Amino acid sequence: MRIVHHRLPPTPDIEIVPPQSSQAKLFFEDVVRNSEDSYFVLVSDPRTKRLNFSALFEVIHDIMKERCELLEWIGEGGRNQLYLAHLSSGRQVAARITFPYSYRELHGPEFIEQDEIDWNKNPARMNSEIQTIYFLKSRTDIPIPAIYSTNITDSPVGAPYSIQELVGGTNVVPKWQQLSGAQKLTIIQKLGEITGKLYSLEFESYGSIIDATSGAIGPLVDPVYCLHHPYPPLGVVGPWPKNDPFGIFVAFATREYRWLESDLGKRLFMKVYNGRDGPNISADKAWETRVMVNKELVSLIPHLPSLYPLPHVAHRPTLAHPDYRFANILISDVDPTNVTGIIDWEYAAVLPLWYTHSMLQSIEYVGEELYINNPHISEVEENMLREEYIKSISQTCSDFQEFLSDVSDWGRKANVLHDIIGLAGRGNLLGTPISIIKDKLELALREVDNRDYSGLVFWKTYQVGVVLKRRLQKCAIATMI
Known about the structure:
The chain is of the alpha+beta class. It has 18 helices and 16 strands. The chain has helices at 22-33, 38-50, 53-64, 103-107, 112-139, 181-200, 247-261, 263-272, 283-300, 304-307, 353-356, 368-373, 379-396, 398-406, 410-425, 428-431, 434-449, 459-478; strands spanning 2-4, 15-16, 68-76, 80-87, 92-98, 147-151, 161-165, 170-171, 205-206, 208-211, 216-218, 240-241, 317-320, 329-331, 339-342, 349-352.
């Protein structure tokens, strides 16, 4: 067996050879540059050791009906290793191997139970991604690599795998700054159209796709993706009907504070705290504050529509890519305006439109400092690209156009909602310094202050607004430790 792998020792059965493809050469440089990084030592190496490469060669042969001549390790993420398989005919396919989050390696042996829990979640996670891809390929023309075969339960390779089509092209990141303004504009317009096509798909509930044929929605896989990652199921994980758009966020937040209050959650918090709130704030005090804030936010979430009203269409169940950025977007090496593939659909889910929508990560506005420190990046150009991205979505999805026209300040309200949901239910309380938590809560309070409750028709709505505002104030005061 001939393998390109930069941390795998040779054996009598394995011949380690130099990188052959451009993907492997780029990854080789990255691995060599970061070879002492704890990620490779603690996470990647144990993953590699559990793989049966002989079985992987056989699996590829059985599926593709031709011999695999060479395997190249070309990438690794939080839960996956990616290999490029060179077949005897000259064709190439991708082999993606899926692993759990490495609790034990990163946080210590006391978290070995979390490893086992995450292993048990692998089948549901992989099935949802696979069904989502099948669903999209049957209903849209979005360019997504085909899946030839998968094994998510009894893999002879040592971990679940999928064998996928290798589409031509390179991800946008290394090419972006070399493209002309016209080429960038064309790419952004096409990415907006793709987003609009996703937003145009209709669903009756919130959760994850579990059946490509019917489009059926099931429980949300890995609803909390954060520092501590998935933990033992605590409460309902869906699906939720479309008339309950905030039920999913109540579940997030409830899981979060139960996790923080659990013995394992508190121990992990103490382990990763590192005094991020300041030298005079103990880990115990920091933990107590986060539990208190989270409990208040749990009671607040069902009433958020009263504080930050959005049009009905903003809550429509909408499918979105979970990590839509240039690294997961492939363009042609011959014609860079040709988008050849959108990859990495893991964690794709159906959620409210206002929650799923965000600016394409690679061109979102992050502050003036970006342009000051990077004079080669044009603020004028990026503003224009952001406008064209939104315009392209609107032209493709009528509901999104209605959303924009009904809410002139939708972005500000959605951002506040994102901040509150993020603090309450996505692990941000665990890893965010208390000063930033305080800033986000004060921003939420200012947005409430901007509303004229005295003009509301129903006195009850006014009372609700006052009560909820007090809860926000209580959270903000608690952070002044």
